[in-house]
Specification:
The complex is a heterotrimer of chains A (about 600), B (about 170) and C (about 500).
Chain A (H helix, E strand, L loop, with lengths): L2 H21 L5 H23 L6 E10 L2 E8 L2 H24 L6 H20 L3 H19 L6 H32 L4 H7 L6 H18 L8 H4 L5 H10 L4 H8 L1 H6 L1 H22 L5 H20 L5 H28 L12 H4 L1 H14 L6 H15 L3 H26 L6 H4 L6 H16 L19 H21 L10 H4 L4 H32 L3 H6 L10 H23 L1
Antiparallel strand pairs in A: 1-2
Helix pairs in contact in A: 1-2, 1-4, 2-3, 2-4, 3-4, 3-10, 3-15, 3-21, 4-5, 5-6, 6-8, 8-11, 8-13, 10-15, 11-14, 11-15, 13-14, 13-19, 14-15, 14-18, 14-19, 15-17, 15-18, 15-21, 17-19, 17-21, 18-19, 19-22
Chain B lengths: L1 H20 L3 H21 L3 H26 L11 H24 L20 H9 L3 H22 L5
Chain C lengths: L3 H20 L6 H17 L22 H32 L12 H20 L3 H19 L6 H32 L4 H10 L4 H19 L7 H8 L2 H27 L2 H26 L5 H21 L12 H30 L10 H4 L1 H15 L5 H15 L3 H26 L6 H4 L7 H19 L1 H8 L1
């Protein structure tokens, strides 16, 4: 197969699968699930074929839009970045599909679910392979829609419908900035193609405008990768089925923001002020999310906040000098172990009859040994135990911050390195060790092979992925230097784990109670307040205009009473009309004056 | 001639003010006729005889008579008790005054371009002669005239539909 | 066949409808609407068969009339919207009958319905004339023909106070604006000595015309046309009239009337923008009006709870985007750049599709749920998924979601404004577009996310006739096509 066929097949197979399911096999859930899983396995194979292609490979573009000097083609960029990302997307996608065969076995909307997954795979592939901003933006939106559909899969549950709505709307805010940013970049460089922008970027004179453009583009990443202040949707998105959380809200979609920044790293590099902002926002997200994670009781929410925190790391790296590669490296390793943790939590939830509160679990070590061990490996990778993949990639980011002399950001990163082991130990100790606290936990038993086999594969990857970087080799590699950073992060690991163990071993309820963290710094409440305030403000303003401007002119005009007694005119609010006439005349006079003189 | 211009212009303006200030609708309508007469005289002064005549025939003759009929048929008396409110008067004065000021300023700044219009006196017959104008309307201007025909048809249909007591 | 034959056919079609209604003693007058739609569909087809003016055709008629691609495109807009308005009128007939026919037994139950089907056809003929008008005289008479037809149609439900009130308001304010228009035309004729737009343009360009007077004429015309298209500060009639008028007529008003206003504005602004002496001021005037319109239209739409009023403010907001395109008209068109006329035409085409789609649903809901409040749309996603989907697409397109027609409309406007460096207009337009997302999605949220209350909770599915279904599907397909392949539409504009 030539590169053209491979690339287009990767993009279109999931679309075909979604279409076939929605139009044909919707009635028979089993066949639909198999079609969807088959398509993703096929794309995984094709992605491996793609690996053999040189870095400069590109598929023949498809002319889509030509408006004067503005041309958009659907072109596919197949460089090593895209090749590596495709392995992550299709690899984890495959495992999640297989896991879902077990997890969603009895779900009434199984066919719909798998159609949604296929649609998501299509959209995500589009983002990864896009060679220009316009195409990327379109798939960016499609990803948003698929995510909406999948979060709201159990739409008759109010919380799920609300979470889907919230995710969609919050993303729209970021995307709007993204769109303006794309337009600005286009104005500045005269192109929307990544290659051409890279060539033209040196010639851009207006630094302020460039900074603005990069920050606006970054808005898109803030939405999709759930950075401050738009992070609020991701924890709520855990209302979706757990495989969805693993695929979309841990490994792939939320990484799209990071991927996009890595894709345009030359842009970020050219805009210094914007790059600093990106690094600080990433660092702040990492720290705040880690703090919030320490006080969550829902197993998936803890993982969600840890995802936020790790995404913060990746975004932070994108804002650093020479940090983009380290960020992509972390994206790559994180995808495996976070998918593992989510699927592991899915197995736990499945076994405990959809119980998600960690304080109602406990003692799962004996009941579900495979899940226990795989989860332990995932946790080890997340808290960066030396030797696991997570360790290498996190070190790379922290070192990049140190070498950039960006000590504020570096400090944020180190603080997170202390917190992560703490909250993960808490989660692990409470959920898996000790005694079962409820009947559900007591009756839990190991899940079927179709669910634990993906866990096992992911566990292997969680350890070794850092050593087999493949196409991402240039991005990161296993290297260790003794440095202040390394010492501090190892200290963080030890202190965090010990503190977590000391505090939580043998506890039946949370000994620590920090309202501020548990309530996520009250940011949700704050946003709700702002929205309400805004609505009230707008409402009040126009009410005031009505009451104090329109009414006096209309109602209080004595003429009204007399005039309205006319025969036809009685039917009308004459005063209203008179006021309109007056406003019309006044507007005309002012406007004419402005224009003529 | 300038003297006559001022007389008729004043007549038109006084008539206009009379329309606004009169409390009796019938008097208002008559004041309007006065205003139209002043205007017609101005047209004739500019050698636009046909327009001047039409102004009297159509507006003063036909339209105003229709107005009067309607006013009398409806027997509107209540208008007489009307008073001018402070707000509406102020509003009217502001808008009208502003417009007046603008026109005055425009005229002050107005340097007549080289493409001034030729006076009608001694102009070609087709701009003054009724039959010539009629011929023009049905040759050169047939298209606008047709559209006006449609406009009148629609207006007629509309009046019937909206005002007939019972539709059958 | 020459282009003007189309107007003649449409006008004759209107006459035929009136005569059939008067003499044929129809039992069910719906067949009149069918006849009208059929005729207009044929005319729409003939639009593609128009032969351009022969080179040796020296008829004086061409002083009043243009058969450019742009004119034909706007004629297409007029015909298409009239067809859809007639389709809506059929669904809406119940309310028309209720508010026109008398209570007496003797009368035909559908008395007054015939003219309601015939008047839009006449308005269509007027709109088509307007699309081709290149002379102050033809502009004025066709504009008035359209406006007077609209006065009648707005007040058509004569036994309904709201409709009557809307009609009188529209009539009086419309007459006021016409006064400004005629005064402006008079000044224009006075300073240039011609009624022909090409000659006026040449005179203005030559520079021997007083700029003050030219600007005065322009501003008077802008006031009048600003009223027609709903530009701030001449927009106050729109919410009241839109709300009071019968829904099909509101749709017609917001699409046909606006399109006609804009083509005249386009033609006239081109004349003024060609003159060095006044072009700067003229562009500034458009920018000021566009900025005001964007802000007022979009922000006032936010607190609306009545859907028809919301659409009225949305129509003002869209006028703001269209005026932005005019304000950002490039002085010199670079190769490959879209002219602002093309952008406006595309935007109006997109606006036609999405607005009529929205009004189709509004009309149906009004008839079956007896309400136009947004609350009445709660739970529509469950009870009538087809209509809800249609409205979802209409709202998405109005808001400018990518892959819909509305997105490219807004995109081209932004493109023009950014190329022209009108940064503060871009900012206002961005704020406006953002607000748009909020208030359009409010309706979507009500349909899909809010629990129905009161009567809406028990409401059954709304029956959709085959004709309406076909119209809705056609509109959806066109919106998506224009969203995927705007080149096809741009190709029609030329």
């Amino acid at each position: 197969m030539d590169v053209n066929t491979i690339a287009w097949l990767i993009l279109l197979l999931p679309l075909a699968s979604a279409a076939v399911i929605l139009l044909g096999t919707k009635k028979s859930a089993g066949i639909s699930a198999l079609i969807s899983t088959g398509s993703v396995i096929a794309t995984l194979v094709l992605s491996f074929l793609l690996l053999a292609q040189p870095d400069t490979a590109a598929a023949k573009p498809l002319q889509w839009l030509s408006l004067g000097d503005f041309e958009v083609t659907i072109g596919l960029k197949l460089d090593s970045l895209a090749q590596g990302m495709m392995i992550i997307v299709t690899g984890i996608g495959t495992l999640v599909h297989v896991f879902s065969l077990g997890y969603m076995h009895d779900d009434a909307g199984k066919a719909r679910f798998f159609a949604g997954l296929s649609q998501f795979m299509f959209s995500m592939t589009g983002i990864v392979l896009a060679d220009n901003f316009a195409m990327m933006f379109i798939f960016w939106e499609l990803v948003g829609v698929s995510s909406y559909i999948l979060i709201g899969h159990w739409y008759d549950k109010d919380s799920a419908a609300d979470a889907a709505k919230k995710a969609f709307l919050v993303n729209r805010i970021g995307d709007f900035g993204f769109m303006i940013g794309i337009l600005l970049v286009w104005v500045l460089t005269g192109s929307i193609y990544f290659d051409e922008i890279a060539k033209a970027i040196g010639g851009v004179q207006n630094a302020n405008l460039l900074n603005a453009a990069v920050l606006l583009v970054f808005c898109g990443a803030v939405g999709k990768s759930a950075q401050l202040p738009l992070h609020v949707w991701l924890p709520d998105a855990m209302e979706g089925p757990t495989p969805v959380s693993a695929l979309i809200h841990a490994a792939t979609m939320v990484a799209a923001g990071v991927y996009m920044l890595a894709r345009v790293s030359f842009l970020v590099g050219a805009a210094e002020m914007a790059a600093d902002t990106i690094a600080i926002i990433g660092g702040a997200t990492a720290l705040l999310a880690a703090l919030m994670a320490t006080q969550q009781n829902d197993i998936k929410r803890v993982l969600a906040y840890s995802t936020l925190s790790q995404l913060g790391y990746m975004i932070m790296a994108q804002g650093l000098h020479d940090g983009s590669d380290a960020g992509m490296f972390h994206l790559y390793t994180h995808a495996w172990f976070k998918a593992l943790l989510f699927l592991g939590s899915g197995a736990v939830i499945f076994a405990c009859h959809h119980e998600q509160d960690i304080w109602k679990m406990g003692g799962l070590r004996q009941k579900m040994p495979i899940t226990f061990w795989t989860f332990l490996i995932g946790t080890a990778a997340l808290i960066a135990v030396p030797g696991t993949s997570g360790f290498w990639s996190k070190e790379a980011i922290l070192e990049a911050a140190w070498h950039d002399h960006n000590y504020l950001v570096w400090g944020l990163g180190i603080a997170v390195a202390f917190l992560t082991p703490f909250y993960m130990t808490r989660l692990f100790v409470v959920a898996f060790l000790g005694k079962p606290r409820t009947k559900d936990a007591d009756h839990a038993h190991e899940v079927s092979p179709i669910m634990w086999v993906p866990l096992a594969i992911l566990a292997v990857m969680a350890v070794i992925s850092a050593y087999i970087t493949g196409p991402l080799e240039a991005k990161g590699h296993v290297a260790f230097h003794m440095s202040l950073t390394a010492i501090l992060s190892l200290a963080g690991l030890v202190v965090g784990v010990l503190a977590g163990w000391k505090l939580y071993a043998g506890c039946d309820r949370d000994p620590v109670n920090i309202k501020l963290f548990a309530n996520k710094f009250y940011l949700d409440e704050l946003y709700l307040g702002i929205v309400r305030l805004f609505q009230d403000f707008v409402g009040m303003t126009f009410d005031a205009v009505d009451r104090y401007l329109i009414e006096p002119i209309t109602v209080r005009l004595p003429a009204l009473a007399a005039m309205s007694s006319g025969y036809v005119l009685r039917l009308l609010q004459v005063g209203n009309l008179q006021a309109y006439g007056f406003l019309f005349g006044l507007g005309a006079v002012v406007l004419i004056w402005l224009i003529v003189f | 001639m300038t003297f006559l211009f001022y007389i008729f212009a004043a007549l038109a303006i006084v008539g206009g003010i009379g329309v606004v200030l009169n409390r009796n609708p019938v008097s208002s309508a008559f004041a309007m006729i006065v205003s139209f007469l002043g205007l017609a005289a101005l047209y004739i002064q500019l050698d636009a005889y046909l327009v001047g005549t039409l102004q009297i025939l159509v507006y003063a003759g036909a339209i105003m008579v229709l107005f009067l009929f309607i006013i009398m048929l409806l027997d509107i008396k209540s208008e007489e008790g009307r008073q001018f409110g402070v707000f509406s008067t102020a509003g009217a004065v502001v808008v009208a005054g502003g417009m007046l000021l603008i026109v005055a300023k425009v005229l002050k700044n107005f340097e007549a371009g080289e493409k001034a219009l030729t006076p009608l006196k001694g102009a070609a017959a087709e701009t003054t002669d009724v039959s010539a104008i009629g011929e023009l309307l049905f040759t050169t201007y047939w298209f606008p005239v047709q559209v006006i025909g449609m406009l009148l048809l629609v207006a007629t249909v509309g009046v019937v539909v909206l005002s007939k007591r019972e539709l059958r | 066949m020459p282009a003007y034959a189309l107007e003649i056919i449409v006008f004759s079609l209107g006459l035929v409808l009136l005569l059939v209604d008067a003499f044929a003693k129809l039992e069910d007058k719906r067949s009149l609407a069918w006849l009208g739609m059929l005729g207009l569909v044929v005319v729409f087809g003939l639009l593609f068969k128009v032969e351009p003016r022969a080179a040796d055709d020296a008829n004086v008629f061409w002083r009043f009339y243009s058969d450019s691609r742009m004119s034909l495109f706007f004629k297409g807009i007029a015909i298409l919207s009239t067809i859809l308005v007639l389709a809506m009128a059929i669904d809406y007939r119940g309310l028309i009958e209720k508010f026109t026919a008398p209570a007496e037994k003797k009368a035909h139950p559908q008395a007054g319905l015939g003219e309601f089907f015939a008047l839009p056809v006449f308005a269509c003929a007027g709109l088509m004339c307007m699309a081709s008008a290149t002379n102050l005289v033809s502009i004025f008479v066709s504009l008035e023909a359209v406006t007077i037809t609209f006065y009648v149609m707005v007040a058509y439900m004569r036994r309904n106070v709201g409709s009557l009130e809307a009609g009188v308001k529209y009539l009086i304010l419309g007459a006021l604006s016409t006064g400004f228009l005629v005064y402006g035309f008079a000044w224009l004729y006075g300073i240039t000595g011609s009624m022909d737009l090409a000659e006026i343009g040449a005179a203005l360009k030559s520079g021997d015309v007083s700029p003050t007077a030219a600007l005065f004429a322009f501003s008077l015309i802008l006031v009048a046309l600003g009223f027609k298209v709903g530009a701030v500060p001449f927009q106050m009639w729109i919410p009241d009239v839109y709300q009071g008028a019968p829904t099909p007529i509101t749709a017609f008003l917001s699409v046909g009337s606006k399109a006609a206003g804009f083509i005249v504005l386009l033609r006239l602004s081109a004349v003024f923008l060609g003159s060095e002496a006044v072009a700067g001021q003229v562009a500034m005037a458009f920018a000021v009006v566009a900025g005001l319109t964007l802000i007022v239209g979009n922000l006032t739409a936010i607190p609306q709870s009545n859907f028809k009023r919301l659409l009225a403010y949305s129509s003002i907001a869209h006028a703001g985007f269209l005026l932005t395109a005019l304000a950002a008209a490039p002085r010199k068109l670079e190769a490959g750049q879209l002219s602002s006329a093309t952008v406006v035409a595309f935007y109006l085409g997109a606006y036609l599709l999405m607005t009529l789609l929205a009004f189709l649903v509004v009309g149906l809901v009004r008839v079956h749920r007896d309400s136009e409040e947004i609350e009445a749309y709660r739970g529509l996603g469950k009870s009538s998924p087809f209509l809800a989907l249609a409205l979802l697409i209409a709202m998405a397109s109005l808001a400018g979601v990518p892959l819909t027609a509305g997105f490219f409309g807004k995109f081209f406007v932004f493109q023009l404004a950014i190329q022209g460096g009108h940064w503060w207009l871009v900012t206002l337009a961005a704020i406006g577009a953002g607000a748009g997302f909020y208030y359009y999605l409010k309706v979507v949220a009500a349909m899909y996310w809010d629990d129905p209350t009161g009567a809406a909770a028990k409401a059954a599915a709304i029956p959709v006739s085959a004709l309406t279904r076909a119209a809705v599907v056609t509109l959806i397909v066109l919106i998506v096509i224009a969203g995927f392949a705007p080149r096809m539409i741009l190709g029609l504009i030329g």
